[in-house]
Amino acid sequence: MFILKKFRTKSKYYIYDSNTNNIIDVAKEIYENLEFLLKKNRAKDFCEPNYKIILSAINEGVLGAVNDLKMEYPFSDEEYLEKLKDSIQQLVLCTTENCNLRCKYCVYSGGYQVGRVHTFRHMSFATMKSAIYFYYKHSSNEKMHTISFYGGEPLLNIERIKKATAYANTLFKTVNFIISTNGILLGNDFIKWFVENNNVMIIVSLDSPKEVHDTYRIDKNGNATYEKIIKNISNIPSGVLKKRVRFQSVYANDDDLEKMIQYYNINNHIIPMSLTSVEKDSASSEILHVIKHSDLNVKAARKKYKKMLQEYINKRPNSEENIYKDIFDNNFRSIHFRSMDKIGSMKLFSGICIPFVRKLFIDIDGNIAPCEKADYLNNFGNIKNGFDVSKIKELLSVINEIKNKRCRKCRA
Ligand code: SF4
Fold it and tell me: Is 182 close to ligand 1, i.e. is its CB under 6 Å away?
């Protein structure tokens, strides 16, 4: 089995070999006849100089066939269990299931086949405290500790969050806090506390510009929310805003992506952290009606992406904070620094999240889930009795099975 991808520019021809992560610059003739050349006994029919390039690539281990390829986690079961004991990197707490907004695409709107819906329940301080202690006990191998407060809208439960941060500060040598908020409750009291606690960062959801944001992010009465958020943000001292406030946007419509990028490019004080498309897996027809995504119009989306990429290549600003960094830089970096080791018959999962280790999500009742995006998978133990190891092992083997079924032949 060859896992290859041919691609070309205006004047050059390339083959990407997934087995070794090599990119080979080839002649047009080879590019056009690659499949034919790789078939046994046929290459000799071709003119020798071109074939030699392929032959030497094969001799060097590039363009080799990959047989019986298996994919695996880069650690054994025992090593994984060790990580669970002392190497959890981040704790995410569902501080409340309540929210003061009713965004049209919200995963908690009831418009998805899986997951919870909005309720009025808050996490108690006792649960927060136990969860933080659980994380403390299971992260002794980590130098940096991060605790994220998630919702619903976490600021609806801010007094307990303040107490929880004070408690965590007494436990950990170094700990950082992240509060994900919709920005509506960023009042003076909160801002005062936030400014005073410099290990707290906030991430504000903003689907800017205004006309895009107000199309989707509305309150319970259907009112627009953009102006309120911008007014609140303007009360945060500029130094703190620059250092400890980031914005995340989701686009429900591909046509909005360009507008969002332009907005971030013009409004330099609003520093983006991520820009992602709205979740549509398991979405109901009502939600799908709200979102307009690329698989409905792949060609148009590709055209837009290409245009943005060209813009990025032409005048890539140096600023670390530029929106392009999120969209393109990380992709380029991962290509540039890719491992050149040969896969052989074993491919380790790359870039895959290690469940419960990279993030540990605790729901409102203290149950353990892999992360906030899979908060409904909350039967992997709890903070009182610890991890349910057999269930976790089951989950890993399911991931393994899916990866081997679906991803084995993928060149990425
Ligand atoms: S702010 Fe977040 S939790 Fe609240 S409705 Fe909007 S998307 Fe849902």
Answer: yes
pLDDT tens-digit readout, 254-275: 778 888 888 988 898 998 888 8
Give the number of domains in the chain: 2
Identify whether residues 27 and 137 lie together within a single domain.
Answer: no
- Please write the tens of the pLDDT for every residue from 277-306: 887 777 787 777 777 665 545 566 667 777
Domain end: 296, 325, 355, which one?
A: 296
| CA–CA gap between residue 31 and residue 12 (Å, rounded) | 10
CA of 174 to the centre of ligand 1 (A): 30
Q: Kindly state if the Cβ of 229 falls inside 6 Å of ligand 1.
A: no
Same domain for 16 and 88 = no
Where would I find the H helices in 297-388? 298-314, 323-324, 330-336
- Looking at the chain, how many residues does it have? 412
Any domain includes 275: yes
Please indicate, yes or no, whether the overall pTM of this predicted structure exceeds 0.70.
yes
Cβ 252 under 6 angstroms from ligand 1: no
Read off the pLDDT of residues 210-221 as tens digits, 9 standing for 90 and up. 999 999 999 999
pLDDT for position 231: 98
> Could you tell me the strand order of the sheet in which 272-277 lies?
272-277, 245-251, 200-205, 176-181, 146-150, 90-94, 360-362, 368-369
